[in-house]
Amino acid sequence: MAQYTLHINGATRTVDVDPATPMLWVLRDHLNLVGTKFGCGIAQCGACTIHINGVAVRSCQLPISAVGSSKVLTIEGLSEHGDHPVQLAWIKQDVPQCGYCQSGQIMTATAFLQQNPNPTDQEIESAMAGNICRCGTYLRIKKAVKDAAENL
Amino acid sequence: MSKQKVDQGRRFFIKSSLLAGGGMMLAFPWLESCNFSPEQVKAMPKEWFEINGYLKIGENGLITIMSPNPEIGQNVKTSMPMLIAEELNCDWSDVIVEQAPLNSNKFFHQMAGGSTSISAAWTPLRKAGATACQMLITAAAAALEVPAEELNAELGFVHHQASGRKLGFGEVASAAALLEVPEEVTLKPINEFKIIGTSRKNVDSKKIVTGASLFGIDYKEEGMLYAGVIHPPAFGLKIKSFDASRALALPGIEAVFQFENYREGQAKGAFDISAHQTQIAVVGRSTWEVFQAKKLVEVTYEEAEEVINKMSFFGGRTLETRWPAGLENTADHKKAMNQAEAKAKVVRQDGNPDAQFNAADQVLERTYYAPYLAHNTLEPLNFFAEVTDESARFVGPIQLPEILEPALADRFGLPLDKVEIMMTRIGGGFGRKLYGHFMLEAGVISKTVGKPVKLVYTREDDMTAGAYRPSYQVTYRAAIKSNKATAIHVIAGGIPESPLAADRFPAGAFDHYKAESWTIDSNITTGAFRAPRSNFMASAEQSFLDELAEQIGKDPIAYRLELLERAASSPVGARNDYDAERYAGVLKLVKEKSGWDTPKPGVHRGVAAYFCHRSYVANVVDVVMENGRPVVDKVYAAIDCGVVINPDAAANLAEGGSVDGIGHALYSQLTFSQGKPDQDNFDAYRLIRHNEAPRDVEVHFVPSDIDPTGMGEPPFPPVMGALANALYKAEGRRLYKQPFTGPQV
Predict the structure, then answer these.
(1) Of B58, B152, B372, B495, which residue has the fewest beta carbons closer than 10 angstroms?
(2) Same-domain check for residues B129 and B247
């Protein structure tokens, strides 16, 4: 066990966990930030996507010991009132079916749009290819990403 | 207008005194613990008045509607409250939706399975809204001192047009809550609907996009422990012994023990399916510590004996299945399937098919195959349980709470009223979460350690101990004489169940027809997977009809319509399970919307249509070749599911069904070596991804005033057939074996 001070969603949080604990479980079990989802545990589905210094990262493969003073952003910190343009676009396009993968999809899309504010369809498809949606809402995700790009 | 007696619904409208309904909400404050927008917080009423079990109204006019059924992504948490709101005549923007817990006294049919939620709720939920509306009108009549007949309700107000006065629902709710539930109500005719048939956004959207606690896996309670299970790595193996000393030495681990999920001799129902009866529980203080400790438990396994599994279907007939001993292999399965066809039994025969085959100029015979599939709900199996000697409480993702409740009561020796089940939003169902063995497991673990417990499966646990889609094979034969198909012969089977629906199209369209069925026993556990059996038969049947049409030189849509015309005008046999005119209707609609008669250069098109879960779906799939590879450019879907409740959400289901069908047909399979699943996570088990999805899906509904039928499952099966037929046009190669990207020999 070791103490870590994390910079998460603009706040400072301290946890005492095994250094190998993936951020996914630090967030979910220790900090009660359950918007970051467990899907596969091997960085194949993208449900656990968070931002580390603005870059989309699979939190199931990121041990807390590797986070250091980096800025961690989770779905809960994306906006104060749930009104980030990407979140609003998701609601406008009524994207979710079961909804389980969507926070990971939104985190991937947000980081991607920061790098590429005017993406083509093909760029969206390949940027989002690491996030599985078992319900098959890919077409609406694509529409929402395009929609958000116009409002960012 | 139709007068509706309320009697059969009375049980569900148990009226209680003021605020009684609030207790239910207070029991589960976590559900509503966050994410009210500022405007909603301002609008929260000081008091709630429960009008009936489904709804309560605040003094300020805000309305809480209980959504009775589990939400697995099929939109019932939005569309079922819409049924109530329609007849209540409220303003939809005044509505808050709350997930109801399992409560068979207040609600009914609290399940997500067989695409039945909306059709079962269609009349009772509208009645719940209509009776409440009538009570509000009665209360308003007393307040305004006018006859109720002079009043009408609209958008949350009761209006007295003669005097221009009006009262808000909130102003009369307290008086209405004290009234008797009316015996009879009048339901609106379809052309007066203001909410049903209009698109309403998912009521949980905001919580989903902000990461609020919503799913079973998110649920927590103070003092709870986390648990995982270890099951044998292969079907046909059982635990012999284990050594937990290394696992128990880890700091966060509290207990490791072996347990039985069903008790010895426990009567099983149709959904009490579990891959392994005996497992090892690992209990600790966090999910990660439990997952790590599981790897350190040293377990030895031995081959299991044959099991005769008896299950009763809803207290009725008992189904006995044999789970043979042994370690099974996919290669052996394929050989066994080819041999099993010879032992098939005739299920239906019309005319004299054998004579037609003997007299045929030509026989077209094709065999289709599909592998096992794992459901892979993105939210892995999990459940919260707190079980003591006196009571049992469960919270989590379950599609069949009503049916699991007796199994849980039996397992823990408790009366039914001591078993409490709260349903959460479910991160994907697809049939997997019908089988609630994981609730029993969580319960046994909780009772053993004497604490509330949260059981979480890893992806590997989830994928390797499934209730899989069975592996199927079907051979279709057509007798062709003078360029006309004169007889159809279908021989269908699977491991362990047959996918045959003997009375489904093309039965009824041929004078001479024979359907045969076979099965092979296996110890690999299977269950319902989105559109069970149809999810294979649609693809096989529609590929075969396509090839048959080509063989006799007919357009694939024209040929299907010709057969359906025959089935409509003079059907063969009395047991056909479909309506040939509605079937033809979706084909005609997809033909029109896809511009089928105007070929597009470079676009290769395939068509298919299928009937299941009481609904009809036809697809046209457009494939284009890019860099020498086929790409699905567009899918057209034409759907007849009766009245559509929430059109945009229904379209979403059809878009998703198309993506899901194309994905599974192209990429997914679960194979076995020595009883062990060869794929245990998404690195080896392939699911369709963004860049592989069709670029566009266009959905059309047949305008209808028929009572609603299934919508969750029907869009899934036919697209696989349309895809196979389009890929044939694109690449010149018929596809008989799923996944289509795998070897075809």
Answers:
(1) B152
(2) no
Residue B324 lies in a domain: no
The percentage of chain B sitting over the pLDDT mark of 90, rounded to a whole number, equals 91
State yes or no: pLDDT of A45 exceeds 70. Answer: yes
Task: Give the β-pairing of B471-481 and B484-495.
Answer: antiparallel
Chain B residues within 8 A of A144 when measuring between CB atoms: none
For B93, residues 6+ apart whose C-beta sits below 8 A from its C-beta are none
pLDDT at B313: 75
φ and ψ at residue A111, rounded to 5 degrees: -65, -40
Average of per-residue pLDDT values in chain B: 93
Q: Which of A33, A91, A135, A142 to mutate to test the interface with B (most CBs of B within 10 A)?
A: A135
Q: Are residues B472 and B440 in the same domain?
A: no
**Tens-place pLDDT, residues B274-298:** 999 999 999 999 999 999 999 999 9
Residue A85: its chain B contacts at CB < 8 A? Answer: none
CATH architecture of A85-151: Orthogonal Bundle (1.10)
User: Which amino acid makes up residue B286?
Assistant: S
What is the length of chain A? 152
Provide ipTM, 2 decimals.
Answer: 0.99
What is the distance of C-alpha B471 from the center of its chain? 19
**Number of neighbours of residue B57 by Cβ within 10 angstroms:** 31
The CATH number that applies at residue B224 is 3.90.1170.50
Q: In this structure, are residues B155 and B91 in contact, taking their beta carbons and an 8 Å threshold?
A: yes
Cβ contact, residue pair A96, B695, below 8 Å: no
Last residue of a domain, one of B170, B189, B210: B210
- Which amino acid belongs to residue B181? V
Give B13-60 pLDDT, tens digit per residue.
333 323 333 322 322 223 333 444 545 544 689 999 999 999 999 999
Classify residue B609 as exposed, middle or buried by CB count within 10 Å of its CB (0-12, 13-18, 19+).
buried
Distance of CA B58 to the CA centre of its chain: 34
The domain limits of chain A are 2-77, 85-151
Q: Which domain holds residue B52?
A: 2-210
B714, B639 in Cβ contact below 8 A? yes
Can you give the pLDDT at residue B21?
Answer: 33
User: Is the dihedral angle over the CA atoms B388, B390, B395, B396 positive or is it negative?
Assistant: positive
B147 shares its domain with B195: yes
Same domain, B205 and B222: no
Number of domains within chain B: 3
Please check whether residues B551 and B411 belong to one and the same domain.
Answer: no
pLDDT tens per residue across span B426-479:
999 999 999 999 999 999 999 999 999 999 999 999 999 999 999 999 999 999
Q: What residue in A sits closest to B218 (Cα-Cα)?
A: A34
Residues B18 and B145 in one domain: yes
Do you find a cis peptide bond into B81, omega within 30 degrees of 0? Answer: no
Cβ pair A35:B655 closer than 8 A: no
Q: Which residues on A lie below 8 Å from B291 (Cβ)?
A: 41
CATH class in words for A2-77: alpha beta
B211: which chain A residues are within 8 Å (Cβ-Cβ)?
33-36, 74-76, 103
Shared-domain flag, residues B349 and B248 = no
Nearest to B682 among A75, A98, A132 (CB): A132
How far is Cα B163 from Cα B148, in angstroms, rounded to an integer?
13
Domain boundary among B210, B229, B257: B210
Which CATH number covers residue B111? 3.30.365.10
- Residue B736 domain flag: no
The one-character DSSP state at B424 is P
Å between A120 CA and nearest CA of chain B: 13
Q: Which of A34, A100, A138 sits opposite B693 (nearest CB)?
A: A138
CB pairs under 8 A between A and B: 197
Same domain assignment for residues B435 and B475: no
Lowest mean pLDDT among B316-330, B404-418, B730-744: B316-330
